[in-house]
């Protein structure tokens, strides 16, 4: 018996890739990214959740909700969290279908104040290719191949 392997796009993978394009999925993705960045700053600075709560002037349960994604992250909360870990919030908009990346950061003197200059350049987004599912199907030969 001959077995023929046919590559097909998985309907589940196609559905999943479409769902990532939804606004709701983008909100959740951005929340995960910002929380991950905040956790990295906390780790680098040796700040635990209790200390972050104290620095932000909120209860530990607020920090838990913020870090596990159950609370709405407002600009106010993000700015205060950034200040608590020694960081500033930087945000921008990028045209749909593009992904942005920071291209340079340099220290400049401006009116006697040190500041960091960060430029932002968009680049085309690489769309994920839907994985293909290999399915085994019997060959279209008659009984002589099966023998």
Structure description:
The strands form two sheets. A two-stranded antiparallel sheet has the order 1-4. Strand 2 and strand 3 (113-124) form a beta hairpin. It is 42% helix and 27% strand. The chain has a domain at 10-89: 434 Repressor (Amino-terminal Domain) (Orthogonal Bundle). With 147 residues, it is α+β, with helices and mostly antiparallel strands. The chain has helices at residues 11-19, 23-45, 49-56, 60-67, 75-84, 143-146, and strands spanning 3-9, 98-110, 113-124, 132-138. The radius of gyration is 24 Å and the shape is extended. Residues 38-93 form the HTH cro/C1-type domain. It comes from Thalassobacterium sedimentorum. Residues 128-147 are annotated as: Disordered.
Annotated CATH topology of the domain at 10-89? 434 Repressor (Amino-terminal Domain)
Order of helices and strands: EHHHHHEEEH
Distance between the termini: 7 Å
Query: Which spans of ≥5 residues are poorly predicted at pLDDT below 50?
Result: 128-135
Widest sheet, order of strands: 1-4
- Measured by DSSP, the beta-strand proportion falls in 25-35%
Shape: extended
Could you tell me the number of beta strands? 4
Please identify the structural class as seen in this structure. alpha+beta
The appropriate CATH architecture of the domain at 10-89 is Orthogonal Bundle
Q: What's the main sheet like? A: 2 strands, antiparallel
Helix content: 40-55%
Find the CATH superfamily of the domain at 10-89.
Answer: lambda repressor-like DNA-binding domains
Gyration radius, to the nearest Å? Answer: 24 Å
Q: Count helical runs.
A: 6
Task: State the CATH class of the domain at 10-89.
Answer: Mainly Alpha
Q: Kindly state the mean pLDDT as a whole number? A: 75
InterPro entries: Cro/C1-type_HTH, Lambda_DNA-bd_dom_sf
Region (Disordered): 128-147
Organism: Thalassobacterium sedimentorum
Protein name: Helix-turn-helix domain-containing protein
């Amino acid at each position: 018996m001959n077995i023929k392997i046919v590559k097909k796009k998985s309907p589940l993978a196609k559905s999943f890739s479409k769902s990532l394009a939804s606004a709701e999925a983008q909100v959740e993705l951005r929340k995960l990214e910002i929380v991950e960045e905040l956790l990295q700053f906390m780790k680098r600075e040796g700040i635990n959740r209790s200390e972050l709560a104290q620095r932000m002037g909120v209860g530990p349960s607020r920090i838990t909700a913020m870090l596990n994604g159950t609370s709405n992250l407002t600009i106010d909360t993000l700015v205060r969290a950034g200040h608590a870990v020694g960081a500033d919030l930087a945000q921008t908009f990028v045209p749909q279908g593009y992904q942005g990346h920071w291209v340079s950061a340099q220290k400049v003197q401006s009116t006697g104040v040190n500041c960091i200059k960060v430029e932002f350049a968009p680049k085309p987004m690489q769309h994920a290719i839907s994985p293909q599912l290999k399915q085994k199907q019997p060959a279209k030969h008659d009984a002589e191949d099966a023998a």
